[in-house]
């Protein structure tokens, strides 16, 4: 594996060059020397240099620290150190450095070290068998570059910050804390400690590689665990660039203790390969017993390759009132589609299936739930996340949280309901290729649902919310099929929004946004309405986009036509009714099964305020096919329109011609046929009459785009 070569570390030395010769060994023991220079060592200023095998007392270190920071180095990059006598230095602000960034010698801390400042220990293998304590502000830095493990914190031992602030970094080229029993990282008292743990810094993937956490308490500090070179910035911290890769015998991240940050953010990033996956290992797993990851109001992010986030047993209990994010790596996608399944009881979500092993406490109190993408920390200068999840996401369990919900994926399917309750933050965002499903979306009052899709989608759920609205983004056409009850604004920023399905001739069109307070349509976009009945649209429509009315057909008469006028439509005119009639249903013994027929040869007489039309169908049985017709007449009766068979033609009001001559005048050169008034009657007649829907806009229309009408009458009052 490649060795990582860096040039500097905070508060340490820069530009020091080493030549590889025979190893030096430094033992800090109770029988060691105290007078400098000693055998194979010397102390000059703030640097203690070892040139061979040397033994010194801890008092040498303590006395030197009284004068400021101390760096202990060898004159080769194979400098081994064993600390067997406790080092306890109380000089405030002093920091101790052992080794260098290129040092490959083994370092063993077998006794306690307590300093009122920072500590940096760098070697090949770094074994921490003693307690490490920092009692004042200062960073803690541990680096191991050896294989097959880099750093080990022995069980029962701690790395602790008792006062002040600082950053603990544990970084190496291989495994860190490779044991089921690992010591603890702790910020106690008034201390606050950020923690960054990174393995596989040299190449990010090769070799046996995992991280075991042990117990971690940061007291408000942030926690990051990943792999790879430190090329990213997160919460202002320099962090790794890829997920912990695991191995055929290891999970990526083993949670071997409880983690608590009390307001600090947590991000665990693992990315095991298919071989490890096939051997039963996962990205993140609790070992030995159930574990808790708690951040208080801080955010928790699990960034994984696979869609099950954690191994199914034992459980990992997540607790946060901040943002919970379940996402793939930046620029990557989950391996396959994700199904969100489980149960929620007393505010706790217990996952099952893909989500098995994941328990989310305070689920209903989340400030935000993010699935499929990562929204970052909001800290200026952090490396941006590139969303790229194309895996499908299905919501198969009802989800209710206080704050925002974000779902980012390929096909998004809502098989269960989503809801938010926080009136300040409870927005819902869907970003995918398509959206579908019957799950309802209930928004907190005054919030918005944003639907960003790239392909045509039909959503069969209901969006609701007092004063809440929707925003349509993406080029894909979105069709809403249900009667939505949200009472805020509708914003069409990209693509088209179609309200309604058009229904069928026997069923009213489903889909409305009748409670929306306003509609704004951006340039290039359209609001599409598809009624097959008379509807009222009261909301004002504005913007540079347009409106399209698709005249779907609906059944307006379900009575057989005779030569006697019957009521057809109320509060309308003959001319409007004539324009809107689209066809009917022809039946009787002289027709091969009830057949839908079209409306042709429409004619209006202004002088008599009457109209005529022909309802025709091409029908028969081989080899005898005919264009069959019933002649229809409309007349005005007050504010109503009456309809009847026009028996002045062929005496019966029905006729036919041989062959397919749809659209021509059957009254000229045709043949008479009996008018049926029931399915069992001879001849044929009209059992149903269909008209297109009508939209009556009563709101202020200021949109400047095109208005497209298709077989529809639109009135504006």
Number of helices: 3
- Averaged pLDDT: 91
What is the strand content?
35-45%
The SS-based structural class is mainly beta
List low-pLDDT spans.
Answer: 1-21
Distance between the terminal alpha carbons, to the nearest Å? 78 Å
Overall shape: it is: rod-shaped
Measured as a percent range, the helix fraction is under 10%
If you compute it from the alpha carbons, what radius of gyration comes out, rounded to the nearest whole angstrom? 38 Å
Give a short account of the largest sheet: 20 strands, mixed
Kindly state the number of beta strands.
71
If you had to describe this structure to a student in words, what would you say it looks like?
Helices cover 3% and strands 44% of the residues. It contains three helices and 71 strands. It has a 20-stranded mixed β-sheet, with helices on one face. 54% of the residues are buried.
Describe, in short, the structure shown.
Helices cover 3% and strands 44% of the residues.
